[in-house]
Input
Amino acid sequence: MRLRNIKGSRDVIAESEFVVHEFREAKGKWAEIFENANPIRIEVGMGKGQFIYELARRNPDINYIGIEKFSSVLLRAIQKMEKEPLPNLKFIRMEAEWITDVFEKDEVDRIYLNFSDPWPKDRHAKRRLESRQFLERYDSFLKKDGIIEFKTDNHDLFMFSLDEVKEAKWNLDEVTYDLHNDEVMNENNIMTEYEERFSSMGNPIYKYIISRN
Ligand code: SAM
Output
């Protein structure tokens, strides 16, 4: 899916009003940036942004921030916003490892992780967005009663993520090994690009919701 070397994508991003460029300066100031005190929810590794764009469209009283490290896919999300702008959606182009530089304690009330890169080698486990290292980062800015929602079709990554939840002493509030056939958890489900692709191949979709109350 990654579209490498799209000509000018970095220039488009640099000039886009939908991207928060000085994101480190935004720490603790997201309410000012959105010009309201509505809850803030983020998607880490949003790809082309189909999921977060639709969430933002359906929920105008919630603010959303999509984080993506690659310009080529972020460009697609920007193009959606250019066609039909939403005031409650912003983007950041960054490597998620630095996420604690961007959000203040209690600034975010929900984190979405969708079809994260699996990093299959053990020595790369800490790069997985569901690793204990990332959970510790999320812990520093997620509200006390905030939640993380994670979906994937990757069985090994999902099993790893469940171990990490336990290891980090978060609560596993809800879990399914077949989201699309789970009436309760699938209610109002918004499909991501990867979810559409992999479920159409017959892969079951796994999902957890975790918290630390
Ligand atoms: N979430 C989308 C979906 O479900 O269709 C895209 C899934 S794609 C497999 C993973 C995306 O996460 C890629 O666009 C990748 O560049 C981004 N990503 C992975 N690790 C990241 C990181 N550490 N920081 C920022 N973005 C990341």
User: Anything to note?
Assistant: The radius of gyration is 16 Å. Residues 118 and 135 are 16 Å apart (CA to CA). Residues 71-83 form the longest helix (13 residues).
